[in-house]
Amino acid sequence: MVSRSDGRLAGKVAIISGGAGGCGAAASELFAQQGAKVAIIDRDVDAAIALASRLNETGFEALGLGADVSRQANVRKAVAAAKEQYGNADILFNHAGTLIVKPFLEIEESEWDWLMGVNVKSMFLMTQAVLPQMLEKGKGSIVCTSSISAVYATPGEVLYDATKGACHMFARAIAVEYRDRGIRCNAVAPGFIRTPHGMRELRDLQAMGVDATEAAIALQQGRLCEASEVAAAALFLASDEASFVNGTHLFVDNGFSAV
Questions:
Q1: In what order do the strands lie in the sheet with 249-252?
Q2: Is 208 exposed, middle or buried (0-12, 13-18, 19+ CB in 10 A)?
Q3: Is residue 68 over pLDDT 60?
Q4: Is residue 3 pLDDT above 80, yes or no?
Q5: Is 152 a catalytic residue?
Q6: Catalytic-role residue among 86, 152, 160, 178
Q7: pTM above 0.85, yes or no
Q8: Which band of pLDDT confidence, cut at 50, 70 and 90, is reported for residue 2?
Q9: Beta strand pairing call for 91-94 and 13-17
């Protein structure tokens, strides 16, 4: 195992929203193992605290915080707590997100507003809260979780696809606006993933009559993506190894987007 002192994120402070489950948890663990002090922000506060405790028990540094990152007051409180514990952030991984699979004409206005809040507004609020810390340092890396759904539409996912399209352009626009102030912002765009979130997506799509079995997905991307593979891509974008990668969308889909 890499020691904190020689990891790829040694000496850095990372904030991860949605960091207690699925790909977010995988990233929290990987970033900590690579030397970062990690603030894990999740609406499931118990899961965030439990994951942070496990990491601390194994010699890493992590802080678990509860927040609904679609609400400004929650975001500001959590980011302030992370800063008080670790100082200004070097890395922000905007990972918090979920999905709704539903025929377009059955989507309620409240559902549209809710998913836009969780998937898109959260990135706005988290970035607006953390970016000033990076500007004080004169550098920083922001990674946003998008999806192949940003550019490849799926029946029953009009709302989800729209949120991920917004994530795509959010990352690109932040990169353009703040490049000359030392800030990088990129999006990681996974294919279908083997996480509780990802498996629920497949079940919901199949319930709508969409051919979304694992066998069907294998024809498009070989197999389901693992959470650790998304975390590894996010680590690269967050690290100094990606120092000249800015405003890009890194597809983690085993060729889905290349066909």
A1: 61-66, 37-42, 13-17, 91-94, 140-145, 183-190, 249-252
A2: middle
A3: yes
A4: no
A5: no
A6: 160
A7: yes
A8: low
A9: parallel
